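Work Package 3 (structural annotation) set out to generate three-dimensional models for the target panel prioritized at the project kickoff. During this period the team completed the workflow that converts sequence records into discrete structure tokens, so that structures can be stored uniformly alongside our sequence database. As a representative example, we reproduce one entry of 368 residues exactly as it appears in the project archive.
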Amino acid sequence: MIKKKVLHVITSLGDGGAEGVLYRLICKTKNEILHEVIVLSDENKYVKLLKFEGIKVYNVNLTKNKIVNLFKLYKIIKKKKDFIIQTWLYHADFLGGLLAYLSGNKNIYWNIRTSEVSLRSMKFRTLIIIFFNSIFSWIIPKKIIICSKKSINIHRSLGFKNIFELIHNGFDPKIYLPKKNFKRKNLNLKKNQIVIGNVARYHPVKNHDYLLSIFENIKNLKNIKLVLVGTNVNSKNLKLMQKIKDYKIQDKVILLGRRDDVFYIYKVFDIFLLTSLSEGFPNVLAEAMLNKNICISTDVGDTALILKNKNYIIPKNDINESSKILRKIIKEKNSAKWKKIKNQNQKHIISNFSLKEMSSKYLDVWKT
């Protein structure tokens, strides 16, 4: 049986949600699909992992030698006329989709991962790309795969053609629930401490300032710690360090930076706090729920659908109200209600957002 062939074009293979979804999708479907990947930047966390899985990866770093590498990108795509072209993220949708179309390939699928389009959540040049994508959406892609319901409504309002295919992110408990024991003492945390965690790269859209403001408002509670994980979330980040100093919470905050063992670190969190200004389908929220964290989040993307409980949604710009919700949850620690919610969180993700279901939907789309 001849396998279908899919050439993925993605902006980055660094430490991000879309990158993780692509990696999991390829691993799950590589027996049915011949996958190849083009990455447009030098952020390459998943390159080695994909190559280990036997996947061909082309590095076309458009941050250097733009003209030369743009021509290189076109040459690679032009040779893949018998491949489905699956692009990921706005810039790859624009460049990969346009070059594939110009090369004569009409079997093109886009992928959109965000739910807010504004200057506060993205660069101006990205907004320009989105504008052109809204026009090209009527010409280039057969389908636009999108990971959140909210995002569909937003992109319709921006003039995108209504050819959306909703596919939520999927998760495999075998990956996200590792058996290796990871204890609090590994991070110098005590058993009786209430640990609030967040996993996000340092970027305005992740809204670390708001997160720290909320924590500063509850810093007088006993035995609480804030553990932050993510790219550039470390002591070298002078802006972040100054904010922590201004709030006088140095002794209560642990900065871990980017970690490859983040699936273990979820296990030491009691509460997971997400304060993003924009998300499509926040993977970290589902990952935390799989690990039985009590999860609180701003209402971004399909967060409400993931949490399935409005009581754990906090406002985007009300420190006092957000702190009030957090305080109430902390007071309930170790109660029967806490344990019930932790177990329900895990069951909800396993039942509704499986990697198997996500992969099956991608396979169905590529058949059209």
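The mean pLDDT is 91.
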